[in-house]
Please model this.
Amino acid sequence: MAYEFLAGCYDEFTADVPYRRWADYLEKHFARSALPIHTVLDLACGTGSLTKELAERGYEMIGVDRSEEMLAVAAEKCRGAGEIAPMFLHQSMERLDLYGTIDACVCCLDSVNYVTRPKTLAKAFQRVHTFLMPGGLFLFDINTPEKLRSLDGQVFLDESEDAYCVWRAEFSPRRRVCTYGMDVFQLEPSGLWSRGEELHEEYAYEPSELEELLRQAGFSHIRQYGELKFRAPKPGEGRIFFAARKEF
Model:
């Protein structure tokens, strides 16, 4: 299962992710919204780093993820964050089921690519649309097909003092999927090393496909942006942001 072994060392391996800068960017989108943004869903929240950053800025946060291991880390990390502690729910995107409405949904760090079936992603977009307030905002980003294709055959190493991960990327043009095979090694309190294997997959969505899925789900005012920018994506850009709105 994805993140079963990686959850415990995920934050160490992603220490270079500028979550504060991501939160700054999301807040600029919030400020442009016609609907005041207070309650925010962090869809595929992982270990809750972005959830915590936004909670500490005064947003009422709900974190949703399909990995129980990642949610356990998130719940501990976000304990006492913000005036209202974030709520965490163990759910997949396409089965999203909230207790009430939200003003905005964010889905960051190419989590959308991890939904490897377009029909499943269509259901996820529909669920987000269902729980958004009229005028609510949906923000997400993707790894572009060009970036995923460029990873084919590459080998990477992430390491910290007590963990390291070797991962290999293979891209299948037929399946339109980039597969990451990971070997995760962690130093146990006993002094011995444990080893786990994980398999992650990302689907190469064309931006035009995603726009169509958003329209089918009922979204409007769909815009594409460059990575953490307020301009259109440039050719060859590896990450694209999408912003869409639920009609009033």
Remarks:
- The chain is about 25% helix and 35% strand.
- The mean pLDDT is 95.
- The radius of gyration is 18 Å.
- The CA atoms of residues 44 and 65 lie 4 Å apart.
